[in-house]
């Protein structure tokens, strides 16, 4: 059906018989010529949006709360295929179990946290408690937790154009 529907994919219709790899027609450019009136590529600048994070009080926490707001990305462990978990830890990232948050050490210290401390991670619809902080190679201002477990704490906004949930940039409050 793909071969009959999508221009350039005709060769996929015979791949079971031929076993031949193929490229999609018209996708590889050997000369810098494009199908435009000038023959040149048409480029445009996409402005980078100014992204901000909410404050701890915007999460409804008391002003006396000690913590930090970070951008949470969700990810799989190395021993996970989609939502099937084969091992509890992720040895590549040094995360010993699935109830932990990978943080940059400087972020943790700025909030007076220490490695292996247990904290609460609050999203826009729920929280996980007793989450262990693990220091790791992650960009300052960001953190990582495993899905699907962490998905219960937030309702990710859906992009208007593509319909994809924003599971890679979710603000969370981390506090004790």
UniProtKB/TrEMBL annotation:
Q: Where does the Molybdopterin dinucleotide-binding domain lie?
A: 70-171
Q: Please give the Pfam families that the UniProt record associates with this protein.
A: Molydop_binding
InterPro entries named among the record's database cross-references:
Asp_de-COase-like_dom_sf, MoPterin_dinucl-bd_dom
Write the lineage as a comma-separated list.
Bacteria, Bacillati, Cyanobacteriota, Cyanophyceae, Pseudanabaenales
| GO MF entry, a single one | molybdopterin cofactor binding
Superkingdom as given in the UniProt entry: Bacteria
> Which protein are we looking at?
Molybdopterin dinucleotide binding domain-containing protein
């Amino acid at each position: 059906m793909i071969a009959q529907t999508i221009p350039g994919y005709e060769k996929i219709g015979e791949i079971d018989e031929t076993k031949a790899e193929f490229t999609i027609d018209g996708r590889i450019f050997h000369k810098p010529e494009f199908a435009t009136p000038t023959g040149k590529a048409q480029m445009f600048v996409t402005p980078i949006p100014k992204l901000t994070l909410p404050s701890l009080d915007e999460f409804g926490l008391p002003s006396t709360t000690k913590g930090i707001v970070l951008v949470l990305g969700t990810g799989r462990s190395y021993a996970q295929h989609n939502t099937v978990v084969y091992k509890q830890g992720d040895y590549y990232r040094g995360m010993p179990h699935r109830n932990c948050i990978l943080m940059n050490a400087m972020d943790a210290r700025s909030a007076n946290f220490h490695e292996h401390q247990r904290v609460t991670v609050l999203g826009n619809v729920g929280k996980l408690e007793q989450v262990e902080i693990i220091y790791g190679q992650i960009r300052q201002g960001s953190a990582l937790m495993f899905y699907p477990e962490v998905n219960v704490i937030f309702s990710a906004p859906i992009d208007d154009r593509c319909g994809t949930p924003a599971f890679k940039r979710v603000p969370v409050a981390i506090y004790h």
